[in-house]
Amino acid sequence: MSQLAFIVFQDNDNARYLVEAMAEDNPHAEVQYHPAMIRIQAEKRLVINRATVEEKIGREWDVQEMLLDVISIGGNVDEDDDHFILEWKN
What we know:
Blueprint: E1 4-10, H1 13-25, E2 30-34, E3 37-43, E4 45-49, H2 50-57, E5 70-74, E6 76-79, E7 83-87
Antiparallel strand pairs: 1-3, 1-5, 2-3, 4-7, 6-7
Helix pairs in contact: 1-2
């Protein structure tokens, strides 16, 4: 059975940078655009790297800033100062 890790953001300027960074760090991920939201999903694991987001937005970024734009997540969370990972472990 498929286990998709996913995150859904509000479709706003902040989230667009996050989606761009996630697409770079997760080339296997599928990005779906819906009215007012963006869903990113991948088999078993997704990662958001602080360094990649900082490249995209051109400033320092705290991983927890992302939570202001999150609508929903699917997967177990592993978070620290440098990354936010969603994954399903066997």
